[in-house]
Design a protein that fits this description.
Strand content: under 5%
Helix content: 55-70%
Strand order of the largest sheet: 1-2
Largest sheet: 2 strands, antiparallel
Shape: globular
Radius of gyration: 22 Å
Number of strands: 2
Order of helices and strands: HEHHHHEH
Distance between the termini: 47 Å
Number of helices: 6
Length: 218
C-alpha cells in the first residue's frame, strides 16, 4: 500500500505540473496578446508593495480564503478587479506553487514569482479592507491574517526579493536560467520530462504492437 500511495502522489504531482505547464503556455500566449492589444505603452498598472519572506507563508496559508472572499463580493472596484486578475495570471505563470521550494527557498527560480502572486493577494485583501470595511467577514479575515503575522514574526524574516515591488502591468516569470543550478527544480522538471517521455513511449508501443487474432481452425 505504501508503494502504491507513493506512486499515486508522484503521478498526481506530475499530472498537476503538466496541467500547470499547459496553463502557463496558454496564459503566456493570451497575456502577450492582451499586452499587444490593450497596452498603451504608459505602463499604467497598479503598484503592488512587496511582502517579506515571512509574510509569504502567512499569505500563502490564507490565500484560498482571501480569493474566495474576493470572489463572493459583488460590484468590486476596478483596483480590486485588476488585482484579482493579476493574482490569477501570476499564479499560473508560477506553476501554481507546485514546484518544491517555491515559497520557502529564496534560491528557487520560482521564489520571485511566488513573491509576486502572494504580494498581489495581500494587496487584494488590503483593498477589500479599505473599500468594504463595513463587512464583518472581511474584518474577521484581516484580523486573522494580522494575528498570524504577529505570531510568526513575519515582518522580520527577509530574503533577497523582500524589497522588490510589483505592478499589475508586469507578470513575473520563473528564472528559467537558474533551474539547472537549483537541484530541487532540476529534479522536478527532469522527473516530469522522464514521465512524459515514458508515457509517449508506452503510447507509441501500444499503437505499433501487433494485434493477435484467433488461431485458424486446423
Amino acid at each position: 500500500m505504501t508503494g502504491r500511495s507513493t506512486d499515486g502522489r508522484v503521478f498526481g504531482l506530475a499530472g498537476r505540473l503538466v496541467g500547470a505547464l499547459l496553463l502557463v503556455l496558454l496564459a503566456n500566449s493570451a497575456f502577450a496578446h492582451r499586452q499587444a492589444s490593450d497596452g498603451d505603452g504608459t505602463g499604467a498598472g497598479i503598484p503592488i508593495p512587496n511582502l517579506t519572506h515571512g509574510q509569504m507563508a502567512v499569505i500563502a496559508a490564507n490565500m484560498p480564503d482571501i480569493l474566495a472572499l474576493a470572489d463572493r463580493q459583488t460590484g468590486l472596484d476596478e483596483t480590486a478587479r485588476r488585482l484579482r486578475a493579476f493574482v490569477d495570471w501570476q499564479y499560473f505563470f508560477c506553476f501554481r506553487g507546485l514546484v518544491p521550494g517555491s515559497l520557502k527557498d529564496e534560491e528557487s527560480p520560482f521564489n520571485e514569482c511566488s513573491h509576486a502572486y502572494l504580494a498581489g493577494t495581500q494587496a487584494l485583501l488590503l483593498q477589500l479592507r479599505q473599500t468594504r470595511s463595513d463587512r464583518a467577514e472581511i474584518r474577521a479575515l484581516v484580523d486573522k491574517v494580522g494575528l498570524d503575522m504577529v505570531r510568526n514574526n513575519a515582518s522580520l524574516v527577509l530574503c533577497r526579493f523582500s524589497g522588490e515591488a510589483f505592478n499589475t502591468a508586469d507578470v513575473v516569470s520563473p528564472r528559467w536560467s537558474e533551474v539547472p543550478g537549483h537541484p530541487p527544480s532540476l529534479a522536478t522538471f527532469g522527473g516530469l520530462a522522464f514521465l512524459i517521455g515514458g508515457a509517449v513511449w508506452l503510447g507509441l508501443r501500444r499503437r505499433t504492437a501487433p494485434v493477435s487474432g484467433p488461431l485458424p481452425a486446423g
